[in-house]
Amino acid sequence: MAVLRTLFLIVIASSMVLTGCGGASSDNPGTPDVAVPDVATPDTSTPGPTPGPLNGAYYVTIALMPVGGLPVPFKMELTSTTSPDGGTVIDVFTARATKGELLSDVLVSLTNIPVSLDGSFTADMGSLIMPGAYSPTSSDVELNAVLYGKIQEGGLFCGDVTGEVVTFSIDMAGSTFGSVAWEERGDDVPVSCEGSAVPLKPIETCPTLAAGLNTGFPSASAERTFDLVVPSGYSADTEWPLLFAYHGINSNMSAMLDWSELRAFADTHNVLIVAPQALDLAGAVVFDSFSDPKNNRDLMLFDDMVTCISESYSIDSERIWVTGMSAGGLMTGMLIARRNEVIAAAAPFSGGMGVEYVSASRQMPVLVSWGGEFDEAFGQNFHTMANKMIQTLDDNDHFVVSCNHQQGHSLVKSYWYWALQFLADHPRDLASEPYPDLPEGFPDFCEIL
Fold first, then answer.
1. Does pTM surpass 0.85?
2. Mean per-residue pLDDT of the chain
3. Which residue of 253, 274, 431, 438 lies most exposed, with the fewest beta carbons within 10 A?
């Protein structure tokens, strides 16, 4: 996001499996290059000045490092006392989920947490349910979390986190948290004892890319993999459209291209198609559709692929399109929200928008497809997410075609014919208005909003 498979990546990320695609990819590109700190262990061997007690309300942000540092904010209220021998005890520790000005009911309530002489303490938050109203996926997400904190000068606290995002089987090892006084919360808050996250940097030198499998592509301190499909009639004398296609959770780029028979459209539609492979994020192979765009590896990967594919091939910058299914549909939503100036048109399937939408000078046309009220996966409701995305797009004057196929969480191969027609009919330099009416061949369940 905002919060969780990425959680929700993640989350969402979310089932995000093409029906019939099978399980996890055997071609695992590797785990993100993220430093995993050791869990803080209270050190009582050398007593020193005891930090002051924690009293008051705090804005605490847990950064889920295995999913790109996805920030999960809480309001935590602590009451502490100091004993005659100089020791400190956190008498009351409560935590609520927060989103904007919203606050949940109390999710965690602990008492009598001892604080070591160096200010270290352990708060086992146990199993808790992040309500859908506070989750980027708009569905409940279960997690277990243990905070290993240390009181800092100035009456704040920070540290490391272990546990699991149970809903998506994502290990939280390596995660961190930071705090500020509740009344001082804002956009730039600490997420660890080191402070705020450092923004990622775009690629500086592109490798030469070729048709087929490209491995070891350097992006955001990780080596990435993607399959580039080049039409058999490609010539550098002509500028060609470029389509990004994102697979679902625990699926892979080959399933996106081959099972769904998307690969064949490179020749029939004269388009280059690039299918990135998601990273293994602590147990789930999924794109990060929810974490802070400044530190989002998959958003940076999109930017770097646009840059480098355009260096190796003759690409029409007015015809860059994006599609994806499930977790790939969520990644498509991320790009709609944050790369409106680059993308000509988009066609997410069973997707959503897990980050804040940023208005651009041009509102791209979007075809939104999903499977009705029973479009669910990993306990996440894609019917809700799709309709929230449609509302955001409509509120920001996008041209939207809505396609509720009522077939649940699935992508039928025949859908490509009208989805790709929609993309091809909407370059950035479109001379006329978008469709006044849907062309012949579009299904009856599609409508212009």
1. no
2. 85
3. 431
